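Lab notebook, bench 4. We co-purified these components, and the gel suggests they stay together. Before we commit to crystallization screens, I want a quick structural picture of the whole thing.
Request: model the full complex, all chains together.
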Amino acid sequence: MLSAILIFLALALVIGALLGYAAVRFKVEEPPIVEEIDSVLPQIQCGQCGYPGCRPYAEAVANGEADINQCTPGGEAVMLKIAEIMHVDPKPLKAAEDGEEIVGHKVAFIHEDDCIGCMHCIKACPVDAIVGTTKAVHTVILKECTGCELCVPVCPTDCIEMRPEPVTPRDWIWPDPEKLVPTVTPPVKGAHP
Amino acid sequence: MSLKETLIRGLAYLYPMARRWLKRFPGGVYPQYKKELSARHPLHAPILPDELILPLQQHVGVPAIPTVKVGERVRKFQQIAKPAPGLSVPVHAPTSGTVKAIEKRPLPHPSGLPDWCIVIEPDGQDEAGDMPVAIQTPTCPASLKKMILQAGIVGMGGAGFPSWRKLPTKQGQIHTLLINGAECEPYITCDDLLMQTRPHDIIQGALKVAECIGAEKIIVGIEDNKPFALKAMRQAAEGTGVDIQAVPTVYPMGGQKQLTEQLTGIEVPAKAHAVDVGLLMFNVATAAAIYRAAEYHEPLVSRLVTVSGEGLAEPMNIEALLGTPFEALANVAKPKQPLDYPLIMGGPMMGHEVVNTQVPVIKTTNCILANPPQPITPAMPCIRCGECMDACPVNLLPQQMYWHAHAHEWDKVEKLHLFDCIECGCCSFVCPSHIPLVQYYRHAKGEIRKLREEQAFQEHARRRHEAHLARLEREKAEKEARLKAKKEAVKKQAAQSTPSVDAQSAGLSARERAIAAAKARAAKESGPTATDDTAAKRKAAMEAARKRAAAKRKADTSDEPAQSPEEKRKAAMEAAKRRAEALKAQKASTDSATEKTPSEKVGDPLCADAKRKAAMEAARKRAAAQRAKKAQEAASSTDTSTPPGSDQATEETAQADRRLAAMEAARRRAAALRQQKQETGEETPAGKDQTPVENAQTAQNPTSAATPSATEKRDTEKVGDPPSRDSKRKAAMEAARKRAAALRARKAQQNSEHNDT
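Here is the predicted assembly.
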């Protein structure tokens, strides 16, 4: 009886020690969850989630402070990715819940006739995509604009407008055939001889 | 015809798909070719349209950059757009004429979007200028590359990839040059006609390229449904060692990878180019264009175009100038009905509709197809028959790809090797449910590319945002550092200048004090507080009273015209005594004030301002009093005879004037000193602006504070930070005003004196 207890006690100690050692020795370094979430966010630093940028939002999500569905520009694709990272069920987008219209990528456009060169938008731009100086007309570097709309409310003359990005033959893509009536005449079917 | 081939052909009557065993690559389909529509006619005579529309981008890559201006006359073969950096080719004028516009016009592109084009109005002269292509015949890959780039040659089979980019950089990298004359798309016969009419150009072009890149072998692959072309090519190739091979007719035999496999048995790996396995393929039209460039130094300005379709009465092939609108060519082929339906660029399998009939022929336009619209069979659900899989020439799983593309699972479609799809359309062609499969793949490819771009953009935006934050941080730190440095400098200077101020306070020149006062004013723009105000007012009132008294005295003395010279002298002596006394007293008070200032002024920086105001007020009043006196004197002098001894009187007035100036200076000195103690030294070189008048005033006054250490003081003061321009200007203005007031006062007095005498 006593021997059995001692044997099992010894076994328990040995195995426990082994497990403890293994836990330290073979520890798997998981990538920090904040980094992972930050990497799927669109990085346009718009603040529409209620946090001052993409990284703060990623931190808030990782800490369980924010919901996974607050990234409006990222849309459903980003929400699904965050849901996967956080191991939670997907949720409909907050903007969609609030009944807001979700639109495609837009870029800022400055009506140069109205621009007074106040520098406010330049200070607001999170990616330095607006150029100009005091009392000189400002303009947007189209290529760098993320469409975060942070420059729109700060403009004292309301001269900034969000416009859809122009499509050129170079960045045009074939439309989804499901949303389209077939346009190409079907090929002439060849009869087998 | 081998035994195997004979057997398969026989078997094909029972089992049509047995024909797939005749070729080396898998899949493929057998559409109705309808090539006889256009192939039975000879080449049509060239036409000259009303305008030529030359898109800046007729190739894969970066659009060319225009080198002509609107209204400029261009000649045939002139380069009108230069290649942009990167993957680009130039554009040349197809005929002589005037540049009508450089504007956005619809392109023969599936998007139908407009893009930049150079529009030329031909003048009908067809006058050629200098050849833009180098005269020297190429001999090495580099010179060949240069020549092909200068000639603006791109892949003319339909892909439009700049040909110079396909060439290897070294000799010997390519062992076999392949020439593609398969032309597998239905309806299209332009390559067939080219091979029939210009076999020599093609063979010589191929030989030229092979010579330059060091290829040992040249194989021309021609589908066996073009017997005339085969015959012509074989004749032209006789004795040149060029191997002309007939390949089985199957769609898509003309695909680069398919024909390569058929001719050489080598399957080009998925992510590799033909160059990587020692092969290079050119279309027959490209080879002919290279020959024209090498032999005649002609750039690519025209090409053979098939104009065909069920809707045309006289389908044909024509040598069309690049930029010719589709409509002009279609009208030559006599449409059976008005062209109110969309034309197709390319063949029925891979071609696409164009947005309107005005789009131009570009370097990749091999066919204009006018097929009146047929009823469209709606797509039905996939029945998983697997026909598409059998038809796929690149061994993909079209059905699986369709399901994933349908569900927008882009990563899964990509895993099924979506990017190996050549978009040949065989799957759509065989689909019994009429599902436009190839459209799904095209869309999926576009979406995946867009996603990748977006990801790259996100990464870019993240970096920019981080840079932005870093910049803000840096700017903040810099600002703090600057502020700190400034503070320290001020402290240091304060420590240096305070004792010297004490030591020299009595000996400051009026000019320096004026500067200090001006500086103080500039620095303390805010108005004085209520207490300061009252103090200042009181002072001003006292000052004014003193002035008034002095004026009265003067008036009294001058009011007595009957005074004897003796009396006058006495009075003058008296006055001089009084003056001296007053001056002494004032000096004493100034000194005591100066001594008091540091303790007095610490909490009261606005005092100086108030004092200055008071001084101004006083000066003004003084001036007014003098003016009044002068008027009075003028009145009295009319009836008085000029007494002798006027010299004395003049001297007296002069002295009075000096005294006034001295008082003024002393007052200013006191204010300045106080201010300076307060400020601990931001002295300026602005003092140099001070006019000699004021200096003279100070110098004139024998009793006023001397200026022994003025220069010395100035030197030490100049060390301090220079003030802003604004404060300098203000100081100068103030000084000028004071000077003017003093001058006015003196002049008035002198005038009165003059009148007196």
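The domain at 133-298 of chain B is CATH 3.40.50.11540 (Rossmann fold). Worth comparing against the SEC data before the next meeting. Chain B has four domains: 1-30, 133-298, 384-504, 508-756.
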